């Protein structure tokens, strides 16, 4: 079964503009075009590939690196090691992002508690000196270990 660009936009959540941009940037060489009309014809396999592209983009991978990954896929099995390395490296990037987000979440949680106490007391002076991370602060490596 094939899908039009509009249907793919609806199914994937990727705008038509972005799908066309991806094509222009060389991210979708796997998408065939109708010989008569020149329109893109997406398959279920193409939708799956687009979901991987969306995933990588969502982790902050630059489009040029995603394009390299796509090219490796197009080049076949002789690039399996490169693709594995790419995903292993990106996993580390995501783990670091999660760690940073968890550190920020801890700080935000602490500030929420700080301001709850200040609101309850009617003044920030009542909680002065308690602005450091709380005693029950969980070390980052423990939080990451729980995720993995």
UniProtKB/TrEMBL annotation:
What's in the keyword line of the UniProt record? Answer: DNA-binding, Repressor, Transcription, Transcription regulation
What PROSITE patterns does this protein's entry cite?
A: HTH_MERR_2
Ranges where the HTH merR-type domain occurs: 2-72
Which positions carry the signal peptide feature in this UniProt record?
none
Would the keyword DNA-binding turn up in this protein's UniProt record?
Answer: yes
Q: What is this protein called?
A: MerR family transcriptional regulator
Species of origin: Companilactobacillus nuruki
Source organism lineage? Bacteria, Bacillati, Bacillota, Bacilli, Lactobacillales
Pfam families listed in its UniProt record: MerR_1
């Amino acid at each position: 079964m094939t899908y039009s660009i509009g249907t793919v936009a609806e199914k994937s959540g990727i705008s038509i503009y972005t799908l066309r941009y991806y094509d222009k940037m060389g991210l979708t060489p796997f998408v065939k075009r109708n010989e008569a009309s020149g329109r893109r014809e997406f398959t279920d396999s193409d939708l799956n590939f687009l979901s991987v592209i969306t995933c990588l983009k969502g982790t902050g991978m630059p489009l040029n690196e995603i394009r390299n990954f796509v090219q490796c896929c197009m080049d076949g099995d002789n690039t399996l090691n490169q693709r594995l390395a790419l995903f292993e490296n990106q996993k580390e990037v995501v783990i670091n992002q999660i760690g940073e987000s968890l550190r920020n979440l801890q700080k935000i949680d602490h500030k929420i508690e700080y301001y709850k106490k200040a609101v309850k007391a009617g003044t920030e002076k009542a909680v002065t000196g308690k602005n450091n991370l709380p005693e029950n602060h969980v070390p980052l490596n423990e939080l990451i270990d729980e995720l993995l």
